[in-house]
C-alpha cells in the first residue's frame, strides 16, 4: 500500500515543483511583491541621506525649538534665521542663487491658524508636506495649550479612553490583530481553494486522458486518491514555507529601511504588534491542513465523477459554497467572536478552518472551543475520506454523463 501511495506522492510533488508555474508563483511573485515594497522605501531612504538645508525664520519667537526635531526627522538640516526687516527678500535671493535649500517663514498668524510659508525650488513629496504641515500645526497648538495651563502632551496624544469588558471581546478595525485576522482568513480561503481544485484537476486530467486505467491496474483507487491529496498538500506546504521565509527576509530588510526613511510615521512597536506570534502561525498551519484534507477529498470525488472540465465547473459549485458561506461571517467573527451564531458556525467542521481562525486571531475564543473544532475536523477528515474514496473508486473509471444524486448514493453503497 505505502509503496504505491509513496510513488503517487513523489510523482505529484515532483511534477508540480518542477513546473514553470510553481517556480513563477513561488519564487518570482514574492520577489516582485517584496521589490515593490522595499525598492521605493530604499530609494526614499537614500534620498533622505542627503539632507536639504532649511532655514527657519521664526517671527513668533516660540516655535523654532519645537520644530527642530520633527524637521530633522523629515530629512532637513535646519538652522534659525532671526527675524528682521527684509529678511524674506534676502533669503529669496539666496534661494535663487542656490546658496540655501529653502526657508520657512513663521509669524503670529502661524500661532493662531497654523499657517506658514515654505520657500523652495523643488516641491517636496506629498508625505514630507503632510509631515511638515502636521508638525507646524502641532507646535502651534501645543504652545496655545501650554499658555492656558493644560497638559499639551496628553491632549495632543488624543487622550485616553479606558474600556473594561466583563467578557472577552473581538478586535476592532483599528486594532493590529484585526489586520492579522482578516488577511489570514482571506489567505487561508484562497490557498485551501486553490490546492483543493488542483487535486480535482489532477484527477480529471488522468481520467480524461485514460491514463488512470493503467494506474488502477497496479494499485487500488483509494491509494491513488490518497497519494494525490498528500502530494498536492506537500506542494502547498512547500510553497507556504518559501513564502514565509521570503516574507521574513522582506520584513527584515524593509522594516529597518521604512523606519529609517519615515521615523515620524512608523515605529518598531507598531510593526511588532502587527506580526503574528508563533502560536497563531501554528494554528494557521493546523487549520490549513485540516481544511485542505477535507476539501481536497471532496474535490477529488468531484473530479472522479466528471468527464469534462465544464462538468467539473458545475459540479464543484455546491462544494465551493461551503467555503463561500463562512466568508460572509468573517467580519462578525473577528469583531464579535462570542456571538452565538458565529460560535455555532465556527464549530461546524466545514466552516471551522475559516471561521475558527478568524475568531482565534481576533481574540476572545475559549481554548476548549478551539480543541473541539480540531476534534470535529479530524472526524470529518475520516468521514470525507471514506465517502470520497467510495465515489472515487467507482467514478474514476466511469465515463459519460455526470451521475445524479441517487446514482452517487448507489456508488457509495456498491463500492
Outline the structure in words.
The structure is a single chain. By secondary structure, this protein is mainly alpha-helical. It has two domains: 52-156, 3-Layer(aba) Sandwich (D-Maltodextrin-Binding Protein, domain 2), CATH 3.40.190; 171-414, no CATH class. It has 19 helices and four strands. The chain has helices at residues 2-17, 20-49, 64-73, 87-97, 108-113, 126-147, 152-156, 176-208, 211-216, 221-261, 268-274, 278-305, 309-315, 317-327, 330-335, 340-347, 352-362, 367-395, 405-414; strands at residues 52-58, 76-81, 102-106, 117-120. It has a four-stranded mixed beta sheet, with helices on both faces. Strand 1, helix 3 and strand 2 form a beta-alpha-beta unit. Helix 8 (176-208) packs antiparallel against helix 17 (352-362). The two termini are 19 Å apart. The model is unreliable at 264-275 (pLDDT under 50).
Sequence-ordered SSE layout with sheet pairings:
Blueprint: H1 2-17, H2 20-49, E1 52-58, H3 64-73, E2 76-81, H4 87-97, E3 102-106, H5 108-113, E4 117-120, H6 126-147, H7 152-156, H8 176-208, H9 211-216, H10 221-261, H11 268-274, H12 278-305, H13 309-315, H14 317-327, H15 330-335, H16 340-347, H17 352-362, H18 367-395, H19 405-414
Helix pairs in contact: 1-10, 2-10, 3-6, 8-10, 8-12, 8-17, 10-12, 12-17, 12-18, 16-17, 17-18, 18-19
Amino acid at each position: 500500500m505505502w509503496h504505491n501511495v509513496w510513488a503517487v506522492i513523489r510523482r505529484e510533488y515532483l511534477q508540480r515543483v518542477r513546473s514553470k508555474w510553481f517556480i513563477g508563483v513561488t519564487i518570482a511573485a514574492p520577489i516582485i511583491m517584496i521589490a515593490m515594497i522595499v525598492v521605493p522605501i530604499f530609494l526614499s531612504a537614500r534620498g533622505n541621506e542627503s539632507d536639504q538645508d532649511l532655514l527657519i525664520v521664526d517671527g513668533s519667537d516660540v516655535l523654532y525649538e519645537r520644530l527642530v526635531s520633527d524637521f530633522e526627522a523629515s530629512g532637513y538640516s535646519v538652522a534659525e534665521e532671526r527675524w528682521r526687516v527684509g529678511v524674506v527678500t534676502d533669503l529669496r535671493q539666496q534661494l535663487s542663487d542656490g546658496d540655501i535649500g529653502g526657508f520657512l517663514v513663521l509669524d503670529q498668524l502661524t500661532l493662531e491658524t497654523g499657517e506658514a510659508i515654505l520657500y523652495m525650488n523643488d516641491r517636496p513629496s506629498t508625505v514630507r508636506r503632510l509631515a511638515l504641515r502636521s508638525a507646524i500645526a502641532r507646535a502651534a497648538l501645543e504652545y496655545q495649550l501650554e499658555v492656558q495651563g493644560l497638559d499639551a502632551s496628553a491632549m495632543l496624544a488624543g487622550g485616553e479612553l479606558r474600556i473594561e469588558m466583563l467578557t472577552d471581546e473581538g478586535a476592532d478595525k483599528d486594532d493590529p490583530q484585526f489586520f492579522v485576522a482578516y488577511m489570514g482568513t482571506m489567505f487561508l480561503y484562497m490557498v485551501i481553494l486553490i490546492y483543493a481544485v488542483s487535486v480535482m484537476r489532477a484527477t480529471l486530467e488522468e481520467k480524461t486522458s485514460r491514463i488512470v486505467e493503467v494506474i488502477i491496474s497496479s494499485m487500488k483507487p483509494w491509494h491513488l486518491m490518497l497519494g494525490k491529496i498528500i502530494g498536492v498538500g506537500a506542494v502547498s506546504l512547500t510553497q507556504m514555507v518559501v513564502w514565509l521565509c521570503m516574507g521574513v527576509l522582506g520584513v527584515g530588510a524593509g522594516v529597518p529601511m521604512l523606519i529609517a526613511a519615515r521615523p515620524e510615521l512608523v515605529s518598531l512597536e507598531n510593526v511588532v504588534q502587527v506580526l503574528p506570534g508563533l502560536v497563531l502561525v501554528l494554528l494557521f498551519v493546523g487549520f490549513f491542513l485540516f481544511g485542505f484534507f477535507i476539501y481536497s477529498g471532496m474535490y477529488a470525488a468531484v473530479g472522479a465523477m466528471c468527464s469534462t472540465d465544464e462538468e467539473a465547473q458545475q459540479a464543484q459549485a455546491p462544494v465551493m459554497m461551503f467555503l463561500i458561506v463562512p466568508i460572509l461571517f468573517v467580519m462578525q467573527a473577528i469583531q464579535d467572536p462570542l456571538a452565538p451564531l458565529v460560535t455555532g458556525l465556527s464549530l461546524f467542521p466545514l466552516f471551522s478552518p475559516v471561521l475558527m481562525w478568524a475568531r482565534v486571531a481576533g481574540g476572545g475564543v475559549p481554548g476548549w472551543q478551539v480543541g473541539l473544532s480540531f476534534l470535529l475536523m479530524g472526524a470529518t477528515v475520516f468521514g470525507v475520506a471514506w465517502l470520497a474514496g467510495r465515489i472515487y473508486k467507482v467514478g474514476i473509471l466511469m465515463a459519460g454523463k455526470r451521475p445524479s444524486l441517487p446514482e452517487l448514493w448507489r456508488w457509495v453503497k456498491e463500492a
